[in-house]
Amino acid sequence: MEVDILAIAAHPDDVEITCGGTVIKMVEAGYRVGILDLTAGETGTRGSAALRKKEARRAAQTLGVVYRENLHIPDAGVENTRANKLKIAQKIRNLRPRTVILPYWQGRHPDHYTTGRIGYEACFLAGLAKLPLKGKPHRPFKIIYASQYVPTVRPTFVVDITEQFDRKLKAIFCFASQFSPPKEMQNLFPSRADIHARMGSEARHFGHMIGVRYGEPFVTRETAAVDDIVKMPVKSV
Ligand SMILES: [Zn+2]
């Protein structure tokens, strides 16, 4: 099993929320996309790990990805260890993606920013021949960081997901245990309507930055190259 694009995230539903529209768009463009979740989200107050597993499978079908696996690193315990990095690096070698999507390397939740950091290091390690890993060395060509969880960061680029937004929401709502809490918990956790509104306003905000209805933000560490300055998108004035 090989993929063109691999999205790596800390918890089941992170990919759907931060880059689900982009994943759908790339699947529609004909690319093979995979998802690697590092934890099963078992410390979350809502929903058991077994339920979230089932939800993750349904969401993967909605996105149209060809691969989704969970590394079962302890939830709320994603740590920058050699063992964790080698586990991820092994998957990168097996799947041989050209592009990897990681969570942005700063933020509120330690699992998110740690995944961004160890994901990057795993991409590097996967290309080293002498490590105790199976298969041929492989290093992804491109790493992009999904930055929606850190809306104060100015994105390097935004993907137009106007056509994919409804299906992105459908994929998010596959995780019903996270968004439809029992009545007594409704004050503690966001309701479906809250999530719908938040996803909509965030996607509108980022879409506005490139002159479209809905968008998803990404950051790259390296500078983008341009060949034709006449065909550059996004209006200046
Ligand atoms: Zn998360």
Structure overview:
- It contains 7 helices and 7 strands.
- It is of the alpha/beta class and 237 residues long.
- It has one domain (5-219): LmbE-like (Rossmann fold, 3-Layer(aba) Sandwich).
- Strands 3-2-1-4-5-7-6 form a 7-stranded mixed beta sheet, sandwiched between helices.
- Strand 4, helix 4 and strand 5 form a beta-alpha-beta unit.
- Helix 1 packs across helix 5, helix 2 runs antiparallel to helix 5 (165-172) and helix 3 packs across helix 4 (110-125).
- The termini are far apart.
- The model has no long low-confidence stretch (mean pLDDT 93).
- The protein binds zinc ion.
Name the descriptors:
single chain; 237 residues; alpha/beta; Rossmann fold; seven-stranded mixed sheet; 7 helices; binds zinc ion
How would you summarize the topology of this molecule?
Elements: E1 5-9, H1 14-28, E2 33-37, H2 49-63, E3 67-70, H3 82-95, E4 99-103, H4 110-125, E5 142-146, E6 157-160, H5 165-172, H6 176-179, H7 192-209, E7 215-219
Parallel strand pairs: 1-2, 1-4, 2-3, 4-5
Antiparallel strand pairs: 5-7, 6-7
Bound molecules: zinc ion.
Residues 10-11, 14, 109, 112 line the site of zinc ion (ZN).
Q: Which word captures the global form?
A: globular
| Unreliably modeled segments | none
Bound ligands, named by name, code or SMILES: zinc ion
The CATH architecture designation is 3-Layer(aba) Sandwich
- How many distinct domains? 1
Mean pLDDT: 93
Major β-sheet profile: 7 strands, mixed
How much β-strand is present in the residues? Answer: 5-15%
**CATH fold node name:** Rossmann fold
Which H/E pattern describes the elements?
A: EHEHEHEHEEHHHE
- Count of helical regions: 7
Assembly level: single chain
**Lateral strand order in the biggest sheet:** 3-2-1-4-5-7-6
Distance between the termini: 46 Å
The secondary structure category is alpha/beta
The helix content, as a percent range, equals 25-40%
Instruction: Quickly name the level 1 CATH class.
Output: Alpha Beta
Strand count: 7
According to CATH, the homologous superfamily is: LmbE-like
Indicate the radius of gyration in whole angstroms. Answer: 18 Å
